[in-house]
Design goal:
Length: 140
Amino acid sequence: MCLFVVFDACFVVLLIRAMMGSSWGDLARAFPAREPARDAVRRNFQTVSLNSMNFGGCVHLAVDPTFLHIIPTRFVRVLGGSTGISIPWESIVVSGGDEQRKMRRAQVGSKTLRAPAWCLELADGGAALPRADTPARPSV
């Protein structure tokens, strides 16, 4: 019995790592991590999704005038998201949001990105860069 549980756990981890390679890995190769600007707004343990992979509370986000920085937590690094991602704003096309405007949807090449509204508003061309003292909206 214990052997089956161990086998199943290993299989699940391998499956998740394979899925991470097709979502996180593709973006990490296309948009390698860069150091956020000193004045970047950073919020930890945020929720984003890349295509069908949801990283609920498992990434840190930093927003500066040039990039949206997606920084993996230790848990995501273990599962295959070993490097951060820095997406230039000109590569992000915001396409919609939810009713409460807590999350926004965007296209980054062929990938669909869902992220908190506070960080994608800059890409949408409207809002000014969020200030560090702006309270974070809860991500659900």
